[in-house]
Amino acid sequence: MPELRQTCLDLLCLADPNDKALQVQAWGAQPWAVDTERALPEPAGIPGRPLRPVLMAHTDIKPARLTTPEGHAGLLHAVCHIEKNAVDLALDVIWRFAGMPHDFYLDWWQVAQEEALHYTLLRDHLRSLGFDYGDFPAHTGLWDMAERTRHDVLARVALVPRTLEARGLDASPAVKTKLVSIGDHRAGEILDIILRDEIGHVAVGNRWYAWLCAQRGLDPVATYPGLTQRYQAPRLKGPFNLAARAAAGFTAQELLQLQAPSSTSTPASINSSTQSAALTAH
What we know:
The chain has one domain. The chain has 11 helices and no strands. It is globular and about 50 Å long. Helix content is 62%, strand content 0%. The two termini are 34 Å apart. Helix 1 (4-12) packs antiparallel against helix 3 (69-96), helix 3 runs antiparallel to helix 4 and helix 4 (102-128) runs antiparallel to helix 7 (185-216). The chain is mainly α.
């Protein structure tokens, strides 16, 4: 019987994102041995990355107009890059953090499989338009937060699924509207699949954040602002997809705080354009 955490580390090290997504999906939901206590040594060079896309600060990425083929494909590429990084993050949280309950690892393995599907759907759609993943520059925002939270599983689940990925719940409807407005109904269908699954992924983050807070004797709501400050998480700007956030397990108190004037200040890293929301959501 294969061991899940070592397998996820091996997959994370793969440089080819297409091969990585294929292998994650091929492993599937088979019976796994899970060594929850073993501290795995960290190899150099993770995550494995291809030579393309070129990585740069998101503020240096200048998307073309959406009504051009390059602008259309560029927006899809930005979302595809988010999903590629989401595969890496799900694999990383499994191998990196020992000592969690068995179900923690199985939950994130399910997330990894769904993120791999999302990446594949978007990559295939890009190819149908004459482009491919790697044809446009991309940023490292999601993995940068992973690096900052690499030593604390509480910070990781608080600030990746519950913060950056939850921003994807907010951005998804507007991105879908833009793509459908230029006639890309297939992209709209894919984004519907992603939104459905991402609600579940954020719910996994919420569930394990609450569990970890309970284990450490912390109040989840009171603890969160301190984590965002310590790890330099971006403040989020509305509009917020409150229905999706509620479905993902955010409490009524959290949703009310999210709508408070102090929580909707615009940080330098987020602007009001739909395309930039897609670029910076993760």
